[in-house]
Amino acid sequence: MGLGALSPNQRNNWSYGEQHTDYNRKGGDIQGTFADAVSKAGIEGKEFGTEADGGTKKTARQYREQIFDQIAPNAPQKVRQAWLDAADVAGVDGMGVSNSGKLSHISQLMVRSLEKGYRDNGVCDLLGNSVQSAICAAKEALYSLEHPLGPSQGRTAEQIENRMKEKLFYQEFLKRL
Question: What DSSP designation does 2 have?
Fold first, then answer.
């Protein structure tokens, strides 16, 4: 039985590995699915610019602060500062948003946010409420990045570069925590 046919309670009892294995067994590609959702939502390749009301452009840091508040509403200030500083160094944040404001790629934390939001009725708290929980989340994302479930051949130079930047982000984030 695929994930779509399970109730939320049934999915909550599955580990990440069980969910991912079942999804892949059915021939799905979670990143492809998420990329389709991003495309349909009209945010693929979105750049920072003027607001709908014609106001001033937001900076990359302002957008990162806004995104951080959405994915880690309970995180302490130390985690927030580490996130923002690591993103400045790496040129991309943990959600795959580059300094230019474009969604550069589907990051490991973005995949987790989709899974977590889907399982937890749209509530997305990826980093928890402590420094230790943020460290665990970053280590899990880094492990997933370094040990992909799918084949790594056939990646473009841009995809490889984006994954390297994401890895640098997690390493810098962990250093600062």
Answer: -
Give the structural domain span for 171: 58-176
For helices 60-71 and 77-90, angle between their N-to-C axes, nearest 10 degrees? 140
pTM: 0.67
DSSP conformation class of 132: H
Structural domain count, the chain: 1
Q: How many CB atoms lie within 10 A of CB 3?
A: 19
> pLDDT truncated to tens, each residue of the chain (177 aa)?
344 444 444 444 455 455 545 544 443 444 444 444 444 444 444 444 545 555 566 788 888 898 899 889 999 999 999 999 999 999 999 999 888 778 888 899 988 888 876 666 666 789 999 999 999 999 999 999 888 887 766 688 998 899 999 999 999 999 999
The answer to whether residue 12 sits within a structural domain is no
* 142 closest CA partner among 101, 98, 175, 104: 175
Structure tokens at 58: 């937001």
Residue 133 to residue 128: CA distance in whole angstroms: 5
